[in-house]
Write a structure and sequence with these properties.
- Two copies of one chain form a homodimer.
- With about 350 residues, chain A is an alpha/beta fold.
- The first copy, chain A, has three domains: about 60 residues, lambda repressor-like DNA-binding domains (434 Repressor (Amino-terminal Domain)); about 130 residues, Rossmann fold, CATH 3.40.50; about 130 residues, Response regulator (Rossmann fold), CATH 3.40.50.2300.
- In chain A, the strands form three sheets. The first copy, chain A, has a six-stranded parallel beta sheet, sandwiched between helices. In chain A, strands 7-6-8-9 form a four-stranded parallel beta sheet, with helices on both faces.
- In chain A, helix 9 links the parallel strand 6 and strand 7.
- In chain A, helix 2 packs across helix 3.
- The longest helix of chain A has 16 residues.
- The first copy, chain A, is elongated, with a radius of gyration of 28 Å.
- The relative contact order of chain A is 0.11.
- Strand 2 of chain A pairs antiparallel with strand 2 of chain B.
- Chain A binds a DNA duplex (16 and 16 nucleotides) through helix 2 and helix 4.
DNA sequence: CTGAAAGCGCTTACAG
DNA sequence: CTGAAAGCGCTTACAG
């Protein structure tokens, strides 16, 4: 061997393109037809016990991996689902996709993930790509998706499940958080603590979720005979910035609220900042409730009372609904998942109580 | 029409199983062979201009979608990449996968996503599934993956790119954050502010990233002739709980540090809590630096100075390296991505300076 | 420029 | 129980 001969070292980072072992390779060694191999590997009862065992042993020895692509072509099922999200980098989407993947995996499905970035061009490209891949179905978590997008998806002729979509539609099945019930619970919690001047800090974009959450707030007020005060309803943009500005208007009121129920945690974060900036304390002077239970809610100061969206579970339910659709069982047109009020330290009885 | 006849309403949620239009359907209408259709749709110069135009027009009219599965079988390329993460619900993985998907999409690749949950059984199942799907390559972001896992993946005989993996290996290409340089920068920042008693709050699990970050800390100290004090090095568990405990030990020192460089933001969060719990202020009494720039870092009180890992970019680089590998160009065995020191409000000059 | 043919790796009716 | 055959929807050498 030549000293320093670099060829003696195998370059593991480069890839040999040997083709994978196929059903034919096994057939040859087992002295049977490839049909028999196919049957044996599917545990078909049509194959003689011993032949089948021999075939399966060979498959293991040769480290055989059935080609899902060939199978898909033969069966016209890919056992894969497209998952469209606005952006997987968004923790919300990430949580939900975690559940989707778990359920898919458990049922032998694979997930083809695509970001739409709420960009119509990208959305078109994504749909086309999923169509070409012949995914068996798709779940869409793209809350800010255009209203036209769902019909576009529906043209794919595969089952669709929508997840917390702002435009639920007759074209598809859907899984959503039970906004009204959850926000009613959150508001009741404030009422039970003794609050009566409770503000609603909503989202100004007219999302269905805002409408529903506001509905729950109203309902809790009504059932407790707390008079509704329009001046206590303000709107942000769903982000901290908007929360700060809206909170500012609330603080400028002749009689500011003693508690604020926020559309979401991001908004609550802004409200919290604004309250502290004006020298007031949470929950000493003002109680604060969020919605979502983002990771961060646990680490704000004080930790935020909020409504948890069971993201993983919602994803799981969506994927399971899709699978049921694919396998012909009834799936439930519209599934509502209860939120969970997580009481931390941003809520307390009002001072004057 | 019978009143109340429910059949007149199309049930859009149910799916008709009409098979997609194929190359043959187009061929029939165009009065050519399917070979010609195939060529025309690939923009092959071998096809007569007008025939090609006619074919492409027909394809558009019929809303033709080439079957990627048939093409994959014919070409033995799927133009898809497996992406293995410990859990996509982890914001870190989510950020990175965002970049991976963007790069993939841009190059016409699809992403098959799989959670390993750091569970050996699941890891095996995931690898098997990706093998069966015949993905062209895989990128793995599974920092806490078992050391045995990468060799297992390598057996897949497809290119692998590792992303911030704790066990970079000769089996694969890798993309990692430049830990040493970034933590040297962070430490320098503290030194420049005037600190000399700077603690390192590390991770006790002996991750390579901890070793490297500690190395950067040492290097910054050395180059500034700040004496290294072993008592200022403590270890947490990478989470807030461990950060609190380790910070407690630091506070119990005869002369506590005036600044603490934490292994990551989660640890910093714990340290921050512990510092405030003892009535001290950040950065008034102690400056604090994290690592990662989690979403939350911007919203702590005070906002945390930290090192940003450009997650999206790292994902993009990993996917691009994989694609280069797939297309036979050199890809760079080991790519290091610089972190970025984000100076917020948790660092200031020491009191006595 | 075009078509007939073979092949990719499976599944599955059909005939024995 | 088994095999030969056809087919899934493409691609691509080969022959004209």
């Amino acid at each position: 061997m030549v000293p320093g001969d670099s060829t003696r070292q195998v370059d593991c980072t480069r890839v040999q393109n040997l083709k994978p072992v196929s059903i034919k390779d096994i057939a040859r060694r087992a002295n049977v037809s490839h049909s028999t191999v196919s049957r044996a590997l599917q545990n078909s009862p049509l194959v003689n016990r011993e032949t089948a065992d021999k075939i399966r042993r060979l498959a293991r020895e040769l480290d055989y991996r059935a080609s899902a692509v060939a199978r898909s072509l033969a069966t016209s099922k890919t056992r894969s689902a497209g998952v469209v999200v606005t952006s997987i980098a968004d923790p919300f989407a990430a949580g939900v996709v975690g559940g989707i993947e778990d359920a898919a995996n458990q049922h032998g499905y694979s997930i083809v993930l695509a970001n739409s970035h709420a960009d119509p061009e990208r959305e078109m490209a994504v749909v086309r790509s999923l169509e070409e891949r012949r995914v068996d179905g798709v779940v869409v978590t793209a809350s800010r998706v255009g209203a036209m997008y769902v019909p576009l998806l529906a043209r794919m002729r595969v089952p669709i499940v929508l997840l917390n979509n702002q435009h639920p539609s007759e074209f598809a099945h859907s899984v959503m958080i039970a906004n009204l019930e959850a926000s009613r619970d959150a508001t009741r919690h404030l009422i039970q603590l003794g609050h009566r001047r409770i503000a609603y800090l909503g989202d100004r974009y007219g999302h269905q979720s805002d409408t529903e959450r506001f509905g729950g707030y109203r309902q809790a007020l009504d059932e407790a005979d707390v008079p509704f005060q329009p001046e206590l309803v303000v709107h942000g943009d769903g982000k901290p910035e908007g929360g700060m500005q809206a909170m500012e208007r609330l603080l400028a009121l002749a009689v500011p609220p003693t508690a604020v129920f926020c559309y979401n945690d991001m908004t609550a974060l802004g409200a919290l900042r604004r309250i502290r900036a004006s020298g007031l304390r949470v929950p000493g002077d003002i109680s604060l409730v969020g919605f979502d239970d983002l990771y961060i809610a646990e680490y704000t100061d004080p930790p935020l009372t909020t409504v948890r969206q069971p993201l993983g579970q919602m994803g799981r339910l969506a994927m399971e609904a899709l699978i049921r659709l694919l396998e012909g069982s009834p799936a439930g047109q519209s599934i509502r998942v209860p939120g969970e009020l997580v009481i931390r330290e941003s809520t307390a009885a009002p001072k004057d109580a």
